[in-house]
Amino acid sequence: MRCLVAYLSYSGNTEEIAQWIEAHLKHIGAKVDMHEIGIDLPIQDISQYDYIFLGTFTWDMGSTPDEMKDFVLEIGYKPKNIAVFGSGDTQFGGDALFCKAVDKLVTFYNSKWDGLKIEQSPRGHQEKHIKNWLERVLADVKAA
Ligand SMILES: Cc1cc2nc3c(=O)[nH]c(=O)nc-3n(C[C@H](O)[C@H](O)[C@H](O)COP(=O)(O)O)c2cc1C
Fold it and tell me: CATH fold of 2-143, please?
């Protein structure tokens, strides 16, 4: 199984989730490419991946960051195998705006899975949310 973990992170929280996902996928024997959006060179062929894990933070009253919008354009089509994760903070607008960019990407890609939403850093008690979410995604992968 070949996976892409593509993420956008300014202050490191979404990156931590991405690294957690990477470690777990490698642990179960998947081949994983990491891609830091806005930093790494464009991906040559996105269709080579069995699964794409797409991570973003949320910005500016529930907005999707511009770099993430550019990446969506760079992908250029709607792969069916995208699972979305992200980091946010309920101090910026409560539950209504919490990780809203995750919801928007889930809807845009018509993702099979609910988005994973983490409050700030995943370190500590939220790690189990990543684990449970990843297990749900991977259960579908095995069943496919
Ligand atoms: C100006 C500003 C606006 C923000 N707006 C939101 C928001 O609308 N919803 C949300 O869930 N988090 C919001 N956040 C919180 C970030 O999404 C959160 O800190 C996230 O963990 C940052 O991810 P990163 O460390 O990967 O960059 C905002 C943060 C800043 C600085």
Answer: Rossmann fold (3.40.50)
